[in-house]
């Protein structure tokens, strides 16, 4: 993906304003002043989010033999959350900053160690436990919880999916969808919200089973537990030097970085960070986060935890449903272990791709250089001037292409203005209908990233666009 005149990246407030101005994302209930931590995805934002989720599902579920997907309920049986430990201990510590007086949240392990974003210290006398799950009534006398993660529905359905899909270890179950947390201090646009979406995999193995897959050949900044400065190295090297102790962790970190790279992200803006001992959940022996260098600092994008057999054992105990599987060799039954749980927030990934794509071509001319798979609009169709023959050809192309993709038809304003409008929302290709279209059946196709233009026969348009959009044909190779 060619990028032009890369200037300073926008602050998070500038990005929020841009997304609102262009019709991507606005505060939910904006006309009533908004509700903190809730966001509405408009005509471009909803397309972008769907494209991201589809790309994730394609990469992690459809293109793999060892992963099946599910879609569980949002309002969930309270016993699911009793078994998982969320009812008792899914909470943060509410604190108030001595300097700016704003409320904030810290993890229990961070109490007394971290400061407010303004640099002020938190008042320890203000500290109190704050439960994060939303509880809701169900019918007349029952209740449920809005799920705070998608993971537990995977555990609760483990046996049904494993048996019915005839899965064999090592294997995974994936889910993507809404999650809800009553965050004390939602902030940084869609980075920390109260309603968000997760894309999660629970990857199960037989205890001590080795990873049969190659560790992807990816270089990244590595910050190991106890270190203060990250070092750039390949995941293979990090595993060889025992910085990443488990082969499965190195493999899954590589998979996740490859996913971001496959959609055009620059891995120089990513690092992997190992959790310190006191950060680890009680059931977890190791956890690596994928972090991104946002304008507000290095922040967690995705967690990849080793959850052992904790969750399946808990659900077996609480539900009295056997979670064991048969070892084909020894004929003994055992509970599989989750060696890795790649857990990615849709909103955080979306923010990463917005930052990766955002560039300024000339003064105040913004271009979103999205990978075409993510672009909310794939093609713009423009008759050069308002003439009936041009418009008829344009409309016929538009009606044909929109059976396959999200396409816009625009006949208003100068052609330069129409290109700029599409550049700003990341449309990779624009088609212009002119005199040659009437005389010889050709149209002009323009590439967003290079602004190069080529002539192409109308009958070849759909097939060519299909190849261009899926990266199967370089634009420059068009005659
Ligand atoms: N099942 C494991 C789990 O939920 P987590 O670290 O609490 O782990 C996983 O969450 C991911 O979900 C995070 O890395 C982040 O991308 C996303 N996430 C968590 N809380 C969020 C919030 N309040 N707003 C947006 N995304 C959030």
Note down, in words, how this protein is organized.
Helix 2 packs across helix 10 and helix 3 packs across helix 9. A hairpin with a 2-residue loop joins strand 15 and strand 16. The protein has a nine-stranded mixed sheet with strand order 3-10-11-19-16-15-14-12-13. Strands 23-22-24-25-26 form a five-stranded mixed sheet, sandwiched between helices. The protein has a three-stranded antiparallel sheet with strand order 4-9-8. It has 479 residues and is of the alpha+beta class. The chain has 14 helices and 26 strands. 30% of the residues lie in helices and 29% in strands. The chain starts with 11 loop residues before the first helix and ends in a 10-residue tail after the last helix. It binds glycyl-adenosine-5'-phosphate. The site of glycyl-adenosine-5'-phosphate (GAP) has 19 residues, from strand 11, strand 16, strand 19 and helix 10.
List the helices and strands and how they pair.
Layout: H1 12-22, E1 25-27, E2 39-41, H2 43-62, E3 67-70, E4 75-76, H3 78-84, H4 86-89, E5 91-97, E6 103-106, E7 122-131, E8 135-138, E9 142-146, H5 151-156, H6 158-164, E10 171-180, E11 195-205, E12 219-223, E13 231-234, H7 235-240, H8 247-262, E14 270-274, E15 287-294, E16 297-305, H9 310-319, E17 325-326, E18 333-334, E19 337-345, H10 346-357, E20 358-360, E21 366-368, E22 379-383, H11 388-401, E23 407-409, H12 415-425, E24 429-433, H13 435-440, E25 442-447, E26 453-457, H14 458-469
The protein binds glycyl-adenosine-5'-phosphate.
Residues 149, 151, 181, 183, 192-193, 196, 198, 200, 300-303, 341, 343-345, 347-348 line the site of glycyl-adenosine-5'-phosphate.
């Amino acid at each position: 993906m060619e990028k032009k005149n890369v200037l300073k990246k926008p602050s998070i407030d500038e990005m929020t304003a841009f997304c609102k101005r262009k019709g991507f994302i606005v505060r939910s209930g904006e006309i009533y002043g908004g509700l903190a931590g809730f966001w509405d995805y408009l005509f471009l934002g909803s397309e972008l989010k769907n494209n991201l989720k589809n790309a994730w599902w394609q990469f992690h579920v459809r293109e793999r033999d060892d992963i099946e997907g599910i879609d569980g309920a949002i309002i969930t049986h309270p016993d699911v959350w009793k078994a998982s430990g969320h009812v008792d201990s899914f909470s943060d510590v509410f604190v108030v900053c001595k300097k700016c007086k704003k409320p904030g949240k810290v993890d229990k392990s961070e109490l007394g160690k971290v400061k407010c974003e303004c640099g002020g210290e938190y008042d320890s006398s203000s500290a109190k436990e704050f439960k994060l799950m939303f509880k809701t009534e169900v019918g007349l006398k029952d209740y449920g919880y809005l799920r705070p993660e998608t993971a537990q529905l995977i555990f609760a359905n483990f046996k049904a999916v494993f048996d019915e899909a005839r899965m064999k270890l090592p294997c995974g179950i994936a889910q993507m969808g809404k999650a809800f947390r009553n965050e004390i201090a939602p902030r940084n646009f869609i980075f920390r919200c109260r309603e968000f979406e997760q894309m999660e995999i629970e990857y199960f193995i037989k205890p001590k089973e080795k990873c049969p897959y190659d560790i992807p050949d990816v270089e990244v900044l590595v910050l190991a537990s106890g270190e203060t400065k990250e070092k750039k190295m390949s995941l293979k090297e990090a595993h060889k030097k025992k910085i990443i102790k488990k082969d499965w962790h190195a493999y899954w970190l590589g998979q996740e970085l490859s996913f971001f790279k496959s959609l055009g992200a620059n891995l120089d803006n990513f690092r992997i960070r190992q959790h310190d001992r006191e950060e680890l959940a009680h059931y977890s022996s190791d956890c690596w986060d994928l972090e991104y260098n946002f304008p507000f600092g290095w922040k967690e994008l995705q967690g990849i935890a080793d959850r052992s057999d904790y969750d399946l054992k808990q659900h077996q105990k609480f539900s009295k449903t056997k979670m064991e599987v048969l070892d084909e060799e020894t004929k003994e039954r055992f509970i599989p272990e989750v060696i890795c749980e790649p857990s990615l927030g849709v909103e955080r990934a979306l923010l990463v791709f917005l930052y990766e794509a955002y560039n300024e071509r000339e003064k105040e001319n913004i271009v979103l250089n999205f990978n075409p798979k993510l672009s909310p609009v794939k093609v713009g169709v423009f008759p050069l001037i308002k003439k009936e023959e041009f418009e008829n050809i344009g409309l016929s192309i538009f009606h044909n292409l929109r059976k396959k993709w999200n396409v816009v038809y625009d006949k208003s304003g100068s052609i330069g203005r129409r290109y700029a409008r599409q550049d700003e929302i990341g449309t990779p290709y624009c088609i212009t209908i002119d005199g040659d279209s009437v005389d010889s059946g050709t149209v002009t196709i323009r590439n967003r990233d290079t602004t190069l233009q080529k002539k192409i026969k109308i009958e070849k348009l759909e097939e060519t666009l299909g190849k261009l959009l899926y990266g199967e044909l370089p634009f420059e190779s068009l005659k």
